[in-house]
Amino acid sequence: MLTWHDYTVENAIQVFEQSKDSMARCWGMKEHSLPKEQMKQLYAYMRACGKTTFLEVVAYTEEEGLAGARLAAECGCDILMGTKYSHAINQYCKDNGLKYMPFVGDIIDRPSVLKGEVDELVREAKACMANGVYGINLLGYRYVGDCDALYEAFKREIDAPVCLAGSINSYDRLDEIKTLAPSLFTIGSAFFEHKFGDSIAEQIDNVCRYMQE
Questions:
Q1: Is 116 within 8 Å of 136 (Cβ atoms)?
Q2: How does pLDDT run across 159-189, given as a tens digit for each residue?
Q3: Helix residue ranges, H only, 107-196
Q4: Is 3-212 a CATH 3.40.50.300 domain?
């Protein structure tokens, strides 16, 4: 993710240009703070480079979520992540060829914090799946409880892609992710804080190679 503290970095286009030949196949950003025309330009470039594209919307009202979904469609994204589930957002995604991976749980602030009992989060995810969403965006390392217990419950109960998103910032956490084996996980701020090396491209390849070991 071309993001730092849940906002898209201002030099996202330059960062992608310098890192497009790295091992990462999936790229994305947040709905703020890059101007729309720059977002459209960057997403078009990502697609031309053969990348799968994501927009993660850190918003919790239906109105904001719909605005994010419209932005994702206008930018030609493959997958809309984030927003709190609503039927209107889900239908918009279906009508516009977007795969939808909403948040679950009680989410506050930006960067996001996740609250809620594990069984409640699983029930909410199942309800989303019953309504035909593609998968779930799970803020596991932003959870105020036990991330491992939360994700293990999702792995048992949710038969769909789950993205473990947020605060993956160390090799210790990568070791945990190897065990948890989510369908997807995101790294954004940690790359800009050089948690895995020097340049963004070098860090991406360091993480990809480490996950293949």
A1: no
A2: 999 999 989 999 999 999 998 899 999 999 9
A3: 118-130, 147-157, 171-180, 189-192
A4: no
